[in-house]
Every structure is written in C-alpha cells, then in structure tokens.
Design goal:
The complex is a heterotrimer of chains A (329), B (777) and C (164).
Chain A lengths: L8 E3 L4 H10 L4 E3 L5 H6 L7 E4 L9 E4 L2 E5 L4 H6 L1 H6 L1 H8 L4 H6 L2 H5 L12 H6 L28 H7 L3 E6 L2 E6 L19 E8 L5 E6 L10 E10 L2 E10 L6 E2 L13 H14 L10 H20 L7
Parallel strand pairs in A: 1-3, 2-3
Antiparallel strand pairs in A: 4-5, 5-8, 6-7, 6-8, 9-10, 10-11, 11-12
Chain B lengths: L19 H6 L14 E7 L5 E7 L1 H5 L3 E6 L23 E2 L5 E7 L2 H9 L2 E6 L6 H5 L14 E9 L2 H6 L3 E9 L11 E7 L4 E6 L4 H12 L6 E4 L15 H13 L2 E5 L2 H7 L5 E10 L5 E13 L5 H10 L10 E9 L13 H18 L4 H7 L6 E2 L5 E2 L4 H11 L2 H4 L7 E11 L14 E7 L5 E5 L8 H13 L6 E5 L16 H28 L6 E4 L2 E4 L6 E3 H9 L5 E7 L21 E12 L6 E11 L6 H20 L5 E2 L2 E2 L18 E6 L21 H13 L5 E2 L3 H23 L2
Parallel strand pairs in B: 1-12, 8-31, 10-11, 14-15, 20-21, 27-30
Antiparallel strand pairs in B: 1-5, 2-4, 2-6, 3-5, 7-15, 8-13, 9-10, 9-12, 13-14, 16-17, 18-26, 19-20, 19-25, 22-23, 23-24, 26-27, 28-29
Helix pairs in contact in B: 6-7, 9-10, 10-18, 14-15, 15-16, 17-18
Chain C lengths: L10 E8 L2 E8 L4 H9 L17 E4 L2 E4 L12 E3 L12 H8 L9 H14 L5 H7 L11 H12 L3
Helix pairs in contact in C: 2-5
Classes of the chains: A alpha+beta (329), B alpha+beta (777), C alpha+beta (164).
C-alpha cells in the first residue's frame, strides 16, 4: 500500500524572497527540491510539516555555469544535469562522478544539488516506519530520548550520506544561502556540524541558493563504497583532489561522507605535501582516514569495515590521480 | 516466434508466455489492481513487542471512529491454522499471546486509508512481556522461555536419519574434513507486495476471495476452516500474481484477516500490505547453521557424509517440519554416497515465521556440501569436476533414502559447463583477484506425496471443446509468472497437433477450475503437465474416432498433423480439426474431458519417518561455473559470468526454461552476495528494498544457460522441473571462485564486502601470528 | 444540507496531459502521482512495489523523463505531459519495447514490467542506439525479481535492433 506522505499543502513561490516569506508564514514548513529524500521520509512519518515550499519554479536556483573565473551551480540543478555536463565533467570530475553515483537514474532526474547537500542524516534506527520506531520507543533524532546506536551517550550518530558534499569540499566550494535576514556566503564546510540530530548550520528559514567553485581546480575523483552497483546510499564516500609538481605533492585534499554525521575535509593532509606520493605517504593517508572517520552502527554493514574500506578508497583514488598526466605540472 | 508450437527437434526457440501481452501493456490485473468500487480499506494492527501475553486489548475507540466499519481481533477467529495438518499452531490474529514483533493483533476496515490508519492509532494494547529469543542458541538454552508451551526446548522438530554405515565410511576414507557454514536468513522479495480482496455477500452468505496466492486450494480450505464456513460457499480466484518464490505457498495471516474483515463489515475489503509488512509476513529461507563432515578417498570418491543442521525457524510452524526434513533428504539424490547421517533441528524463536523459498530446504545444506567438496578436492589436488565425476549416480536407481532417480543428466551438465566456461584452459591461469568456481545442485519435480492425503489424483485438468472449435484448458494450477499456463497450453497443443492460438487456459478459479494443490515444489510441469497430456490424449482419442468415421477409415489409421486429421496411406484424405470438432458435438454437445495424473507409489518415498519429504518422480540436475573477481581493499565481489547447464528432462518451452534458470541462478547470486535479513531485538532493520539488497541490473552478470535433455520416463514428454534446481549451486560456485581468486575460504553467506574484508584481516592476523611464532626462540 | 458545516476544500485543480489527452482533476496537494494514476484516474498499469522510491515499479515519464511516481506529487505535474504504460502502444499495435519484452521473455510475472519498459522507452527516445552498458545504466533503478535481468537486456537490445 502506498502510504500517504502526510496532509501538507504545497506552495510554489516565484522567487527566493517569496520562498523565505512563505516559510516565515508557516515556521514548521519545509523546502521541497526534488523530493527524493523528503517525500520518502514524510511517507515514513518522519516529520509532519503543514506546508511544503516547492522551489522548482524559481529561475535563480536553476542556473549552471562554468566560467573562466569559476563555476556557479544553482541549488535546484538536478544531479542528472550536472553529471552529464561536459564542461563540469572536464573540470570537476569528482563532482560529476559523485552526482552520477547517487541512488538510481530516475532519482537523479529530479534530485537537486541542494537536496543532496542538505540530505537528512541516516540511521537504521531512524529510517524506518512509524510502527517500527514506535515499537522501539523512537530515538534521540526524532521523538525519543535514546540513541540506540550508542545508548550511553547523549549524541545522535546518524550519518550524513550525501555524495556531492565531499566532492565539493575537495574542490573548494563555497555556498550562498538566503533567509529572511538576507543572504550570506560561506565555505561549504561551514554548512555542517558533527551532530546527527542537527547536522546543518542553516537557520530554519534559510535555503541554499547556489554553490560556487574556484577556477583552475586540481584533478579530482570520487569513489563510493556500496554493496550494489546502484540505488544504495554510500557506506562511505571519498573524494580526492590532488596535484603534484615535479613529482611532489602540492595539493592533496581528501573529503569523506557516509561515515560521520557530517561530510568533512580530512585534517593533516598538508603534512604530506612536498613529498612524492609513495607507499609511505599512502600509509599515512590510510592512517589519517582511519583515525578521523567515526562510522557507527548506523548501517547494516559493520562499522569497522566502513573505516578500513574508506581508507582503502582514499589510497586508491590518490594513487590513481597521481598517475594521471593532469596531476603533474 | 509467432505463437506456433515449435517442433520437438532441438534446437527449439520456445514460445512467449500466453499471457505476456497483458503484462507488457499494463492490462494485467494484479490483486491490487482489481476493481476497488465499494471496497473498504483494510489495515492491520501489529504487535510492538516480541513475546508477551496480551493483558488488555481495547478496540472500542477504533470501532467508534467515524468511517470505521469493522474491527476484528483474535476473538473473531479462535481456530488455529497452518499448512501442515500436524502443526497448525498459528492464529490469524493473536489470541492471548504474541510471539514476534509485527504479529497481527487486530484489524480495521474503514472507508479510506486515512481513517483506517487513524483507527489503528486508537487501539489500546497492554502486554505482559516475556523473555524473547532471537537466535536458535538462545532459544535452545536451558531455562529458555518457551515460544510454544507444548514444545520443550523450543524444538519444533528434530530429525535423526542414518542411511548406510557412516562410521565404516569415515574409517575407509583417506581424508575426512568438516566445515561449519552459516547462511543468513533471506526473503523472497517478490516485487508485488501482498494484497487480498475479499467480498462477503451477507444476503447469500457467499465469500469471494481474490489473493496473491500460489495455493488457492489451501486458501479455500483454510478460509472455510477459520471462518467456519461451508467450503461450497467460498470462491477463490487468483488474479495475475507478481511472483511468489515460495512466499505464498501457505495461507498467510493477512488473507484470513481480510476475509474476517469482509464478513464483519458485510462487504468488500481490500488489503494491501506495505513492503515492510511483506518482510514481517516473511515465510522464507531460515538462518541456518550447518556442520558437515565428509569422508573421501584419495581418488575423490566419497565414503560418508555426516551433517547437522540447525534452522532458526521463527515463531510458528508453517512449513518448518518439511524444511528441516528437506535439508537432510536432499543430501541424497545428487551423488552416490554410501553412508549419510543427518541430524536436523528446527527451532522456534521470537521472529517472523520462516517458510518455503525457492529450492526449499535444500539450498543451504547443498551450499555447505559443495563448499566442502571443493576444499577437499583442492587438498587432494583434484579437479573439482573430476571429484564430481567420481561420485555420479547411474539411473535408474534408488538412493539410500529411497528416492527415485529415473533420469540423470548431471554428467552431460558437467561436460557442457566445463566446455562452455573454458574451465580446463583457464583454471589456475587467471590473474590474482580473479577466479572461477563450480558446483552442482538438484531439485525435486514435485513432492510425490501431497500434504493432504485424500486419495485424489495429484493433478486434474479439464478440457472443454465447444462449437467454436476452441479448446479451453481448465486448471487449478496458479500461474504466478513462471509460465505454467503456457506450459499447459503447449502440452495440449502438441498432443492435439494444434496451433497454440487455439488453446485457451483458465487457471485457478475454484468455481470453474478443478482443484489443484498449487504452485510449489516445482510440481506443476510434472504433475499438471502429465494431467494435461492425459486430457488432451483422451480428447484426441474421441476426435480420432469421429475423424475415422468421417474419413471412412479405421481408427488406428487416423493420425494428426498441423491441425488436420489424416488417414494413413491415403494422404489425400484429410479433414480439419474444426470439421471433426463440429461432428464430435453432434448428439453430444460441448465436450468436457478430464485428464489426471497420480504419482506412482514407487515415487512416494521410503517408509521411515519423514520419508515422504524429498520423494519425487524425478530430479532436475544442474552444474554451474561462476567467474568472479575480488577487490581485496574494499571486499567487493564482482561476478563476471555464469555458465549453467540444467537437465530438465525435456524443455517443453525452452524460452521459459532459460528464463527460469537465469532467474534461479540470479536469485542464488542475491543470497550469495548481498541479501540477508537483520533483526534488532526482533525488529526487522532490513524491511525495505533499500536495506534488503536485491541485486540491481548493474551487478547482474550474463548467464549462459545450456539445456540438457535426459528424457525422464515418467515426465510429460520426458520433462522435469526447471525453476528451482539452479539456485543452490550458485553460492558454492561463487565461494569456490573467491577461494580461487584470493585464497580465502568464506564460511558465511552472504559474501558481503565486510565479511570478505574481515576474512582478509583475519588471514593477515594469522600470518603475523605464525611468523611471530616462527621467529620466537 | 448542513452547508455551513462543510469542511473547507483541501483540493486544487490540476491540469495535465495524460497519455496524450489533457484532463483536469481535483486533487489534494499531498496526493502522490502513483495514487493519482491508480485511484483518481484508474490506470493500474503503474505499480507500487515498495514503500517509497526503492523499486522502480511505478516509473512513469514526466515530460519524457522517467520519474518514480511514488515520490512525485501530482500537483507538481501541473501543465506537464505524463506517460504511463497504458499510453505506450498506439493504434492497436504494441510499442517495439512491449513486443520485444513479450517475445524475448523480458517479462515473467509482469509486475516490474511497466516500470521497466517506461525506463527503457525514455532511454530509446534520447539514445536510439544504446550500448548494453547504457541499457543497464538506464534500468539501474528498476528491480526485477524473476529474470535476473538477462532477458530484460536482451529485450531492450531486440527493440533497438527493431527500430524503424
């Protein structure tokens, strides 16, 4: 049976100002992008907003431009569009690889950049039906007061599982955000905090307008750990951007998703700069990843596996990128 | 392929399904697509706890809600039901006690879904919780709370079978090895969710039930039993069914609940279960722990087998006794083994009940067996094909446990896949990380002894020939997508030498079609196929008499070809089927012919307790080779290609046979690579198609299917089953391919990347330990 | 009667072009496209196989783009063209994909078939000669439990080769 998604109303504002105004009029409302995450969650009773604010008709959110000075990606651009864009594929391959790795092809036809960046965190105790969660006394993230993943703590460990964020992080993205109070820009990393319960730093009425990427990006790549070749969320996702000058690393950025409550740039890779990407550096890199990821039992697969395999992916990607002619100059 | 029946000569392409066009146009009506006009919406209230006594159940607020028409509880059905007459221990709605989370406790029929869901929220349930057991070990431990008071130790059934002299066998062996294999619970995950439409007419007291069933006759019987209605007041109709794989081979609680609601509401109720509820309803292959020991001579000949199986059965009996018996019985029938000892334990736990799933009972023990065979072959430096060839049966024969083997195409299956996969040229020559493995399997062509021993034939098919010259086959056999109606049309058309278009098949409507036991144990082709041929032959005899009169020749001189009756020796004299049909109706009217099939007594198994399970007229045989690679960093196993050869006796419809084998191999791949259930304190964390990982098209490999025809003497045109046998050899072939690729022996299914990486880490640890010991003074 | 007690309407009019014909229906904002098609319109070829976005059985084309109807709101289809399996065959003849799925046994139980064919139809519309890899990529969100996908790939391939 197709469960209803609730009894919300939908409004279709024409511009960003109208969207934030609509939110102000109905504080519990939610912004609706492609709906591939939000509607699934609402069908499971995760949230009961009275109003959905449909952003799809807002032209400003729909732009996709690759210019000499950088790139601007409208928040409402679909993943399918970005994955197929030849200029982006040439300059920002990690982003396009990440976009192409999300869910199934039909999801990507509607799912948006903002939707993926603002994806709700996930956990096997949370992404379940109302009956299921009710039978389990709910959980810290929604309607309950215990995190079943780590019952002793007072912290929600739900994992962030968006694929785009690590790619944008290693590419040095910043974002533009709009709310009732106006607009602001910030590095993408500042959108997130490591708390499964409230992993976004946005105010309730704020929405993403665009992501911006600097020009002249280093070569980049994204790899996703999952059981099936399609549909699955990442058990871990790794993006790497790397450049070497005369055989020595000049840029090495690694970002991860799926393992913590936020996507994050790996700390400590700067210490590896100036060295050739040899087995020792790769071993260091492996150790850095294993130390900084904190996979918990939020998925059906073992968390230790996610840690070990995430590190392996990072090594693979770094080695692969270093071997490409584009990485050297 | 234009619908004409191909000749019996090989190769035959086969024919598309006779109901295929309805499926590709979207016109096919599945249960959820039936006319909902006037139907109330049914919803089930399920237990939030795993094990407990019901202290108070108050449905009055739900009943009082505007728009609610009926609420039913366990009080509305005090009778228990179940598929096995000896183990009917389940209530459609819990009575007094619940035994797993998600067990139906009450149900609501309301004017719409929102109202029904609001009503569920108004039901008050107070429970006294009891300790719950989620593993077989915990349920078997001393002092464990009992799931059923009459089953001490939570033991549903223990089986102890010894055939031959295992001790002597092991003593005569050059190599004795043992494995412990753990296979996770899996689910059918048929894409059509469960649904039922029940229509009760209070004026006539008639109930019409339409459901997703594979066993409409059992459903009919159980509805009469649970609702305490006269059987003749019930009509059960099977609409299009979106797959079964065993999920629907026993009557399911929601079906009875829907009927209870319809009667209480005095009207029509449509029940559609969510995907989560499908997983709660479950009835699939149990988590199984296997300890298996084999004795082998240096040349690869087996001397003895000893096997202990523990199945975590879930909260109710269902088919459990049959499953634990199959697990032992199907150790036989594939190879010649002089001695087999089997100890099986089916355990009750506080989880959704397990049941039958494609390859019922045999899959996990076959996996353990083939895996061990492969490891012992390696240890003895024998080729795995050679080891199989050392242990072949020779038909006709009876196995130690008295199973009938009249046809045995395994040797040719081995030859075919060995050749097709380039085994000899490639084994041992693949780069590290890539490997090939092989295994064999078999399955019954229908359980020769039915569950209900009524003395009736095992199958009945009626044919109706009317003034329009069309032949209508009436069968109770439910086509659930496997193509059984097409099979019946082909057997009738071939027997009568008619084009397929002249045959119409009406299946599974109790008011019209003869009783049939249903779509399980791959019985339809063998039993119903034979009954269809019998009916067609009888019709042909009648028509041949008529044709002889018309042609003015003797009956013996009449033969048929391409829709004509001809006289032998005088090819010029011929009369068309239509003319003969019209003449046959003169003075008679519509012809109704019945054909039957009864399994011969010698196929019905040994006299030992449980000897009926595994007994069949013939086994399908399969050999397959899997080529896979393993990423040692991520643990990802990729299957590149599968070669499978099946001995199905005779391929009545080669297109359907290859389709069934591909599906079975692939379903085996799902169990081998990614599918498993996972309960968190009895709550199914896997209860979606996101977490329960049915393979997508991306990781699904090409499958090369070869058909071997051994022409079973009892089979319809020599045919045997083709739908189940190929499943069980995939997983062991894959595990062998992984061993071949990276030298890791996996003891658990599925071979998910985390298990592979865990095994690699364990190997490194062992190596470190070993070198540390060696370097120690 | 009791006009003063009538609850306010929670529906709005949606106009869309369904299988080539414009129509207008009053629907609540939260109605899912799959329920609109199956219950409001009565076209049951579009199936429900999961609890939201996981199986692809409800795949329909919105302005020629495949979308899972179970996570699409009907009101968002205002002014758009919706195509379902029922609209694929025209003039009494099967679409070449339908013919191929029938003849090559790309359908067994038939439940995933409408969604599978709609995904394939969208592919062939934008790419007349897809490779096997592109076929697999396009069908990667449609689960089938019967075929192992072997004959599904063969069916799409046959339909490609059958192109006019």
């Amino acid at each position: 049976m197709t469960a209803a998604a609730g009894a919300f109303r939908v409004v279709e504002p024409a511009d960003v100002a109208a969207a934030t105004a609509a939110h102000a009029g109905e504080p519990g409302s939610r912004y609706l992008g492609g709906g591939t995450d939000l509607l699934v969650n609402l069908r499971r009773g995760l949230g009961t907003p009275a109003l959905l604010i449909d952003l799809r008709g807002i032209a400003e959110l729909d732009g996709l431009a690759c210019m000499a000075g950088g790139a601007r990606i409208g928040a409402g651009v679909t993943l399918a569009r970005i994955a197929a864009d030849p200029e982006f594929r040439a300059r920002y391959p990690a982003l396009c690889e990440a976009a192409a790795a999300v869910a199934g092809p039909a999801h990507r036809n509607v799912a948006t950049v903002a939707g993926n960046l603002c994806l709700d965190t996930r956990c096997i105790y949370y992404n379940q039906s109302e009956w299921w969660r009710g039978a389990n006394a709910y959980c810290l993230k929604y309607r309950g007061d215990v995190c079943h993943v780590a019952p002793q703590g007072r912290h929600c460990h739900a994992a962030f599982c968006g694929d785009l964020a690590p790619a944008l992080l290693v590419l040095g993205a910043s974002i533009e955000v709009a709310g009732r109070a106006g607009r602001r820009r910030m590095p993408l990393a500042e959108l997130y905090r490591d708390d499964g319960l409230a992993h976004l730093t946005l105010a309730a009425d704020e929405l993403l307008v665009a992501a911006e990427l600097p020009a002249d990006p280093p070569p980049s790549a994204y790899a996703k750990l999952r059981v099936r070749g399609s549909v699955d969320f990442p058990l871990a996702g790794v993006a790497v951007a790397l450049r070497a000058e005369e055989g020595r690393l000049s840029i090495l950025r690694v970002a991860l998703t799926g393992t913590n409550s936020r996507p994050f740039l790996l700390d400590g890779t700067d210490n590896l700069l100036g060295r050739p990407l040899d087995a020792t550096v790769l071993r260091h890199l492996d150790r850095l990843v294993q130390k900084q990821v904190h996979p918990m039992r939020t998925t059906l697969l073992q968390s230790n596996y996610r840690r070990v395999a995430a590190a392996a992916l990072a090594r693979h990607l770094a080695a692969r990128l270093a071997a490409t002619p584009e990485a050297a100059r | 392929m234009n619908g004409t029946v191909a000749s019996r000569d090989w190769p035959r392409p086969g024919v598309p399904l006779i109901d295929g066009i309805d499926k590709v146009t979207g016109h096919a009506r599945f249960t959820a697509d039936l006319d909902p006009c006037g139907a109330l919406v049914g919803r089930i209230f399920r237990s939030p706890v795993s094990h407990g006594d019901i202290v108070r159940l108050d449905v009055s607020r739900a009943r009082d809600l505007e728009g609610v028409v009926a609420v039913v509880t366990g009080d509305d059905c005090p009778r228990t039901y179940g598929v096995l007459p000896v183990a009917m221990n389940e209530h459609p709605l819990a009575c007094g006690k619940v035994r797993y989370r998600g067990e139906p406790v009450a149900a609501v029929a309301a004017v719409d879904a929102e109202t029904a869901e609001r009503a569920l929220a108004l039901i008050e349930l107070e429970m006294r919780e009891l300790p719950a057991h989620y593993t077989a070990d915990s349920a078997r431990a001393a002092g464990a709370a009992l799931v059923h008071d009459d089953r001490p130790g939570n033991l549903e059934r223990a089986v102890h079978h010894v055939f031959g002299d295992p001790e002597a066998g092991f003593a005569a062996a050059d190599l004795v090895r043992e494995v412990r294999i753990d296979c996770a619970e899996v689910n059918h995950a048929q894409i059509e969710p469960h649904a039922a439409l029940a229509d009760y007419d209070p004026a006539t007291g008639q109930l019409t039930m339409q459901s997703v069933s594979q066993v409409t006759f059992y459903l009919h019987m159980m509805l009469a039993h649970c609702l305490q209605m006269d059987e003749s007041r019930i009509r059960v109709i099977k609409p299009f069914v979106g797959g079964g794989f065993g999920a629907r081979v026993e009557v399911l609680n929601f079906e009875i609940v829907t009927a209870l609601l319809a009667r209480a509401a005095q009207g029509k109720v449509l029940m559609q279960l969510t995907r989560e509820e499908n997983f709660l309803t479950h009835r699939a292959r149990p988590q199984t722990a296997i300890r298996l020991r084999l004795g082998m001579r240096r040349d690869g000949r087996m001397t003895a087998c000893e096997c202990e199986v523990v199945q975590r059965g879930g909260a109710y009996a269902g088919y459990g006794i049959v499953t634990i018996l199959y697990a032992g019985a199907l150790l036989h029938g594939l190879y010649a083994i002089p001695a087999v000892k089997y100890d099986g334990y089916r355990i009750y736990t506080n989880l959704p009940p397990c049941g039958a799933m494609r390859g019922h009972g045999g899959v996990n023990t076959r996996h353990a067996f083939e895996v061990l065979l492969d490891r012992m072959a390696r240890e003895l430096e024998l080729d795995p094909f050679a080891v199989r060839r050392m242990n072949l049966l020779s038909a006709p024969t009876r196995t130690l446990n008295e199973l009938l083997v009249n046809s045995y195409g395994l040797p040719e299956c081995l030859d075919r896949v060995e050749r097709a996969s380039g085994w000899r040229e490639r084994i041992g020559r693949l780069p590290r990380g890539r490997g090939i493995g092989m295994a064999c399997s078999h399955y019954v062509s229908g359980a020769a002894k039915p569950i209900h021993r009524t003395g009736e034939p095992h199958a009945v098919v009626n044919l109706k020939l009317d003034w329009d010259g069309g032949v209508t086959a009436l069968t109770g056999a439910p086509d659930i997508g496997q193509g059984s109606s097409t099979m019946i049309a082909i057997t009738v058309a071939e027997t009568l030498d008619l084009p397929l278009e002249r045959i119409r098949v009406i299946a599974a409507d109790s008011a019209i079609t003869p009783k049939d036991n249903g779509a399980y144990s791959s019985r339809i082709t063998f039993m119903v196929g034979n009954a269809a041929i019998d009916a067609a032959q009888r019709l042909k005899d009648i028509l041949s008499e008529v044709a002889a009169r018309k042609l003015g020749v003797r009956r013996e001189d009449v033969y048929t070809a391409a829709g004509m009756f001809l006289a032998r020796g005088s090819d010029a004299t011929a009369v068309s089927f239509e003319e003969v049909a019209k003449a046959a109706l003169v003075g008679e009217g519509t012809l109704t012919i019945k054909g039957t099939f009864t399994c011969p007594p010698e196929s019905q198994g040994g006299k030992h307790k449980g000897g009926a399970v595994g007994a069949t007229m013939g086994f399908s045989y399969v050999a397959q080779v899997v080529e896979a690679s393993v990423d040692e960093d991520t643990g990802q196993v990729t299957v590149h290609q599968v070669w499978a050869a099946i001995d199905c006796g005779h391929a009545i419809n080669p297109l359907a046979v290859t389709g069934q084998v591909e599906g079975a191999v692939w379903m085996g791949m799902g169990q081998a690579l990614s599918e498993e259930t996972c309960y968190l304190d009895g709550l199914p964390a896997h209860a979606s198609l996101l977490e329960y990982r049915v393979p997508t098209i991306i990781e699904s490999p090409p499958i090369d299917v070869q058909i071997v025809e051994s022409h079973d003497p009892l089979g319809p045109f020599g045919a045997k089953e083709a739908s189940e046998g190929a499943l069980a050899s995939f997983a062991p072939a894959l595990v062998a391919a992984v061993a071949n690729a990276i030298g890791i022996d996996l003891d658990e299914l599925p071979a998910t990347p985390d298990r592979v990486v865990e095994a690699l880490i364990a190997r490194r640890r062992r190596a470190r330990l070993k070198s540390a010991q060696e370097s120690a003074p | 009667m009791h006009q003063d007690q009538r609850p306010p309407s929670r529906k709005r009019l949606v106009r869309l072009c369904l299988n080539g014909r414009w129509r207008e229906d009053a629907v609540p904002d939260h109605l899912l496209l799959v329920n609109y098609l199956r219950e409001t319109v009565g076209l049951t070829g579009t199936k429900t196989g999961c609890d939201g976005g996981e199986c692809g059985a409800c795949m329909v084309l919105v302005d020629s783009v495949p979308m899972p109807a179970c996570i699409t709101l009907a009101v968002r289809c205002e002014g758009r063209s919706i195509e379902t399996i029922e609209g694929l065959s025209s003039g009494g003849s099967l679409h070449r994909l339908q013919r191929a799925f029938h003849e090559q046994l790309g359908t067994q139980c038939g439940f995933c078939t409408p969604g599978m064919i709609m995904s394939a139809a969208a592919l062939l519309r934008r790419n007349a000669r897809p490779t096997d890899g592109e076929i697999r990529e396009a069908l990667a969100g449609n689960l089938c439990r019967c075929t192992g996908y072997v004959k599904i790939v063969e069916s799409v391939r046959a339909a490609v080769d059958d192109a006019p």
